[in-house]
UniProtKB/TrEMBL annotation:
Keywords on record: Hydrolase
CDD domains membership: PaaI_thioesterase
Pfam family of the protein (one): 4HBT
Keyword Transmembrane helix: no
Family classification: Belongs to the thioesterase PaaI family.
Record-given protein name: Aromatic compound degradation protein PaaI
InterPro entries: ACOT13, HotDog_dom_sf, PAAI_dom, Thioestr_dom
GO molecular function, one term: fatty acyl-CoA hydrolase activity
């Protein structure tokens, strides 16, 4: 039997509630640009998977993360929840870039297709979400994850509810 070596990972974050309130005072695009620039801290989920905002534009969100063994499932590959979280994040943020101040959103559904296994050896992956149909009540999004070589690893479609809080 092989010797087991316990490893650990430390996660730090700030209380997200003040930023959530601030988000309602800014357009979604301005808010995400401030997050990308570091003037607004990222949400706690970003710490869990090492998520970084790479680019945002109207109807577009690009984020990256580097999977490691702390993301593994029992069969020795990155858990599908890693990809689903990354895809849900770019889908939601792509919708957020289309919203004016005072408007919010939430995911109604997320359909993920896992096309290739992801492991720690995969390295940094980049997810891109694009709004296919913005709306005042619902918005539709497509997303994908690719590795550094451009190989398609997973895809998703999502519907987000748009509302006034």
């Amino acid at each position: 039997m092989t010797e087991l070596t316990e490893q650990s990972r430390t996660i730090s974050w700030v209380d997200p509630r003040p930023q959530a309130e601030q988000a309602l005072t800014m357009s979604g695009l301005d808010y995400l640009r401030a997050m990308q620039e570091g003037t607004i801290p990222p949400p706690p989920i970003a710490s869990h998977i090492g998520l970084e905002v790479v680019d945002v534009a109207e109807g577009l969100a690009v984020m990256a993360a580097t999977p490691d063994e702390s993301h593994y499932n029992p069969i020795g590959s990155v858990h599908g929840g890693f990809s689903a979280t990354l895809l849900d994040s770019v889908c939601g943020c792509a919708v957020q870039t289309t919203l004016p101040a005072g408007t919010a959103y939430t995911s109604l559904d997320l359909s993920v297709s896992f096309l290739r296994a992801i492991t720690a050896d995969t390295g940094r992956v980049v997810a891109t979400g694009r709004v296919t149909k913005p709306g005042s009540r619902a918005a539709f999004v497509e997303a994908e994850i690719r590795d550094a070589g451009g190989r398609l690893l997973a895809t998703a479609t999502s519907t987000c509810l748009v509302f006034q809080p």
